[in-house]
Design brief:
The protein is α+β, with helices and mostly antiparallel strands and 200 residues long. The protein folds into two domains: 138 residues; 48 residues, SH3 type barrels (Roll). Helix content is 60%, strand content 20%. It has a five-stranded antiparallel sheet, with no helix packed on it. A hairpin with a 2-residue loop joins strand 2 and strand 3. The chain starts with a helix and ends with a strand.
């Protein structure tokens, strides 16, 4: 390489020191816009494809899905704030006019912007993964269909359970109580009404 080319590369490297912060700010703005767009996309997918009502889930699954969405929301907010911080700096920050002070501030700020960018990307990735996990919980849970559930109105009150068999003389129901199943036989003379039930 000729001395002129080497000198030119050296000049470009020295110039890079002075415009490094501006380049990082522009990179941070691009990241912020891209990550906010990704968040909007995740939100649209959630609205279009997610379960309409988490209350239809059992309480344990509902707590898991709600917790995942809550932590995801916090991570996405933190990621957005970090991306904004990296793009525009801290509000109300004063710049010193001295050359050495400005140089020190630029070095420190460059490190802060890099750290904020990395943390922002990690927060967004974590938030998106948690949203996907919450969607997976709500999409994949299916209630085990309890077939043949009936409510039987008798002389003594109403009984609900899974209909095992029915003949005019008696109806046999399978009932669950305290975690165990047991059969209950109701004489036909006591049955006043029998209707299908969606849940007991």
């Amino acid at each position: 390489m000729s001395p002129g080319v080497v000198r030119r590369w050296g000049e470009l490297a020295r110039e890079l020191e002075f415009c490094q912060l501006d380049m990082l700010r522009k990179q941070a703005e691009g990241w912020r816009n891209g990550l906010l767009g990704l968040t909007a996309l995740v939100t649209v997918v959630t609205v279009l494809k997610g379960r309409d009502d988490l209350s239809q889930l059992p309480s344990s699954w509902r707590i898991v899905a709600t917790s995942l969405l809550g932590v995801a929301f916090l991570l996405l907010v933190v990621g957005s704030l970090l991306a904004v911080r990296a793009s525009f700096g801290r509000p109300g920050e004063q710049l010193l006019l001295g050359g050495n002070s400005l140089r020190r501030w630029t070095r420190v700020e460059t490190t802060r912007v890099r750290r904020a960018l990395h943390l922002s990307a990690a927060a967004f990735a974590g938030g998106v993964l948690l949203v996907v996990a919450a969607l997976g919980v709500s999409w994949t849970y299916t209630e085990s269909p309890a077939t043949n559930l009936v409510k039987v109105t008798t002389v003594g009150g109403t009984v609900c359970g899974e209909l095992v068999s029915y003949v005019p003389a008696r109806a046999t129901l399978l009932r669950t109580s305290q975690g165990s199943d047991h059969q209950m036989v109701i004489p036909g003379s006591e049955i006043r009404r029998m209707t299908p039930a969606s849940a007991c």
